[in-house]
Design goal:
Elements: E1 5-8, E2 14-17, E3 20-23, H1 33-43, E4 51-55, E5 68-69, E6 79-80, E7 84-87, E8 101-109, E9 123-127, E10 139-142, E11 146-150, E12 153-156, E13 166-167, E14 178-180, H2 188-196, E15 201-205, E16 209-215, E17 219-220, E18 231-232, H3 234-245, E19 249-256, H4 260-273, E20 276-280, H5 291-295
Parallel strand pairs: 1-20, 8-9, 16-19, 16-20, 17-18
Antiparallel strand pairs: 2-3, 4-15, 5-14, 6-13, 7-9, 7-10, 8-12, 11-12
């Protein structure tokens, strides 16, 4: 297992003195944030993430482990995007309020119905938004552009072009199209798209496990009332929330007093059980605050992020 031991602090102030970089506490060997990220990528590659398959209902926020391609066209059939009448577009050419086109209404497409036959030339079918266009039709005249003559005849006062007010087969997504790339964090709208394509489970990477350790004699659990000189362990809550928000699984290992052996023992345990370990504290240069230096013994090459 690859790991990174990180010292979490709210300190990133540094200053240049000749050719050395020294921070506000006098510590040297300091590099910029961009250099630190490069070092992390060079020496601490991400852990190999096994692929898992999760049902869509459990996949929001997870990261795709591979490119996802559509197994079918969406929509699978031509559908109306307006309420109106399914027509042959040619039957409406030249129609106007002064010289309307007259079409006979010879059928109707109900929602959920798949029509197997369509109207003849000079005729049309009633259709609602979302209805499947019947064979022989290639457009939908909006209801607002028609006038009822009687129960079986309408006037069309505005022409419609081929493909008007409808969505064609595969217009949203075509079979074989890449719909989501590898490494994509799944959003609610992504899950809706996958559901529309009939994909019921999605391949995702294993979640990274993050261990969190708080250090210092002055730290007490958040549910306690601190005595003078003590403070609540706010860092652990903050780090756990940040890890969860990034899609990781945080594990809090509690508070460790300023005891080197106890700290290193717990740190070894956390390293063995997690992909990443974060510990808070060690921001001063006090004689007792040497945890980050000891932690570097467990990391090769040593890398501390303040």
């Amino acid at each position: 297992m690859r790991y990174l031991v990180t010292n979490y602090e709210y300190t990133n102030v540094s200053m240049k003195t000749s050719s050395r970089t020294v921070d506000m506490l006098g510590r040297s060997d300091i590099v910029s944030l961009s250099e630190a990220l490069q070092l992390m990528e060079m020496h601490y590659p991400p852990p190999v993430s096994a692929e898992e398959r999760h049902p869509l209902a459990q996949a929001c926020g997870r990261v795709t482990s591979q490119e996802i391609r559509s197994p079918e066209n969406l929509p699978a059939y031509p559908r109306a995007t307006m309420d109106g009448f399914a027509v042959r577009a040619a039957d409406t050419f030249g129609a106007s309020e002064k010289l309307p086109a007259y079409l006979e209404v010879t059928g109707e497409v109900s929602m959920g119905e798949f029509p197997v036959a369509g109207p003849d030339s000079g005729a049309c079918f009633r259709i609602a938004t979302g209805g499947v266009l019947p064979p022989s039709t290639n457009a939908v005249v909006m209801l607002e552009h028609t006038i009822n003559v009687d129960e079986r005849m309408i006037e069309i006062v505005r022409p419609v072009a081929t493909g008007g007010n409808m969505i064609a087969v595969g217009e949203d997504v075509q079979k074989g199209d890449a719909v989501l790339p590898a490494g994509h964090r799944l959003r609610p709208q992504d899950l809706g798209l996958l559901a529309g394509l009939g994909i019921v489970a999605v391949p995702v990477t294993r979640q990274v496990k993050v261990g969190i350790i708080s250090t210092g004699d002055e730290i007490v659990p958040i549910e306690e009332t601190p005595l003078p000189g003590k403070i609540r362990d706010m860092n652990a809550v903050n780090l756990a929330a940040l890890a969860s928000n990034a899609g990781a699984i945080p594990q809090n290992y509690g508070i460790v007093i300023d005891d080197a052996e106890q700290f290193l023992s717990l740190l070894r345990t956390a390293i063995n059980e997690n992909d990443l370990v974060l510990f808070s504290g060690s921001s001063s240069v006090g004689a007792r605050d040497k945890r980050s230096n000891r932690a570097n013994r467990l990391s090769s090459p040593p890398l501390r992020i303040n």
